[in-house]
Amino acid sequence: MTGAGNVIGNTAGISSDISADISAVAAKDFEPLGIVFAEATASRRNGYGATHDALMREAAAMGADGIINVSIAPTSGVFNRTWSGSALAIRYQDY
Q1: Which fold has domain 28-92?
Q2: In the chain, where are the structural domains located?
Q3: Lowest-pLDDT range, 39-43, 75-79, 80-84, 89-93?
Q4: Which helix (H) or strand (E) holds 57?
Q5: Are 87 and 36 a contacting pair, CB within 8 Å?
């Protein structure tokens, strides 16, 4: 595959078989459970992570395994900002 090294950055120590097959993405079927919303107050360095964690907690309360289509942005403040986020909660299908 052309450009595989550019996809994963540093390929040192990775066998050529793995880096050549980097475009193969593992996929699982999932069921959408609904959209989750969350807010977090944090400094600008950890606001994204705090909001992502809050979204994951909201999704877990719905019985979700994970979230996709995540959108997070600061909504107010300068040093101690309020961050808001939304995501689609999903549950993986077991076949």
Answers
A1: Translation Initiation Factor IF3 (3.30.110)
A2: 28-92
A3: 75-79
A4: helix 47-61
A5: yes
> Looking at residue 77, what is its pLDDT?
72
| 61 Cβ neighbours under 8 A, 6+ residues apart | none
Interval 23-58: pLDDT, tens:
555 578 899 999 999 999 987 678 889 999 999 999
Instruction: Compute how many other C-beta atoms are within 10 angstroms of the C-beta atom of residue 31.
Output: 11
DSSP secondary structure of 67-95: EEEEEEEEEE-SSEEEEEEEEEEEEE---
Q: Measure the CA–CA gap between 30 and 33, rounded to whole angstroms.
A: 9
0.90 exceeded by pTM: no
* H or E segment and range at residue 43: strand 30-43
Six-digit token pair at 78?
């300068």
Backbone angles phi, psi at 50, to 5 degrees: -65, -40
